[in-house]
Amino acid sequence: MSALSSHLVLASHLVLAEKAVPxxxxxxxxxxxSDAVGPEQYAAWLADLPVETRLxxxxxxxxxxxxxxYCGCHTxxxxxxxxxxxxxxxxxxxxxxxxxxSPARKVIHVHxxxxxxxxxxxxxxxxxxxxxxGHFDFAPDAEISIELDPRYVDDSLARPLFEAGFNRVSxxxxxxxxxxxxxxxxxxPFEVVERAVHALRAAGFRAINLDLMYGLPHQSDEDVxxxxxxxxxxxxxxxxxxxxxHAPWFAKRQxxxxxxxxxxxxxxxxxxxxxxxxxxxxxYVAIGLDHFARPDDPMAVAxxxxxxxxxxxxxxxxxxxxxxxxxxxxxxRLPQGYVxxxxxxxxxxxxxxxxxxxxxxxxxxxxxxxARAAVIERLMCDFSxxxxxxxxxxxxDAAALDGARDQLxxxxxxxxATQEGRRVSITEAGRPFMRLVASAFDxxxxxxxxxHSVAV
Length: 456
Prior knowledge:
Layout: H1 3-8, H2 11-17, H3 39-47, E1 54-61, E2 63-64, E3 76-77, H4 82-101, E4 106-114, H5 121-135, E5 137-148, H6 155-163, E6 168-174, H7 178-184, H8 190-203, E7 207-214, H9 221-232, E8 238-243, H10 265-281, E9 285-287, E10 291-293, H11 298-304, E11 309-311, E12 314-316, E13 322-326, E14 331-334, E15 337-341, H12 345-353, E16 359-364, H13 367-382, E17 384-386, H14 387-395, H15 405-413, E18 417-420, E19 423-426, H16 434-439, H17 445-448
Parallel strand pairs: 1-4, 1-13, 2-3, 4-5, 5-6, 6-7, 7-8
Antiparallel strand pairs: 8-10, 9-10, 11-12, 14-15, 15-16, 17-19, 18-19
Helix pairs in contact: 4-5, 4-12, 5-6, 6-8, 9-10, 13-14
């Protein structure tokens, strides 16, 4: 074991690793959204967007052919195409509804997530993309990305996507060991992933991301490294390495996973470190908490230039001023606050078919929220931030966020962070715990800590 790995498994760090903290893809985080923000507020916020606002669009498709037991996403299983046809039709109406309320603004980023959005098929996805283009002004270099299940990727899907203008694909690999795949209800041998990558490259795709996971049932350090090495043999441009978040109180399907088979805190720390070292050893640059990219990838460039961002898709190069949501459970971010569509497909559909926005909750930002969000984002992206400077610029008081000092001092004693004045930096050994450092600035955490996953 390396000196770093030995340091990480200190008893005190095991305690830190078990603490429940958000992933900080937003601040305030989603558990703090409320029905104080609804469709009327969203309509007003849209109307107030300046015409020069740069937009990012997120479209959620909550359907899969079968449900994986590890998954915590808003999705449902369907073997029939009729629900997909109906959903696509409602998406078309929602695009028209939002497009008329925010016309002709520049779009620089589009992301399709799920679920398995590829189940809509190449023809539907192309038609919906054409509809988006009809309402918004797409930048020539706009990134249009989609999450795909490798088991359902072939030439009949890959080519229409590329012809429709999609230019980045993320494939959910998770793990490539048969016993782990069986334990999480997602059997997809390496050859299946390999065929999917070959089909995408033959269609013209060059930007291909692969998602891996650690902390899965019956998963060992060697399993994680083997998955990383096999996946890297396909030469993707980026990796995302996520820790499995066991939250059966939220995702009922996770009750099918044997909690006794899950790796403990020490094993999770080792697995994350082993996968990280393997990917770095194969030439990938570590990005933030859990991403890796080739040195010439735009994400690696953004990190070097201090332009890396973090949103609901994780780390991103998206520099948009506002993120608009489409589809059931989809979340958006406007300068004024967060908004979220109804999570149930029926409620979302009824709203859209009544020509109403489907927003059912959200949160309006305070100046304090925005300052804390800026500090948290820079910590998660740059590992260091002068929170006094941000507080001075955004709140007019450099000492406004000094309430974090006690928690930061404790983390400094644990070797996770260092402080110099009001600049806090995350140590190399402390990077797996960066969410804990970020949590020092979370004014809402105490109220809903139990709703979050463990830190590592």
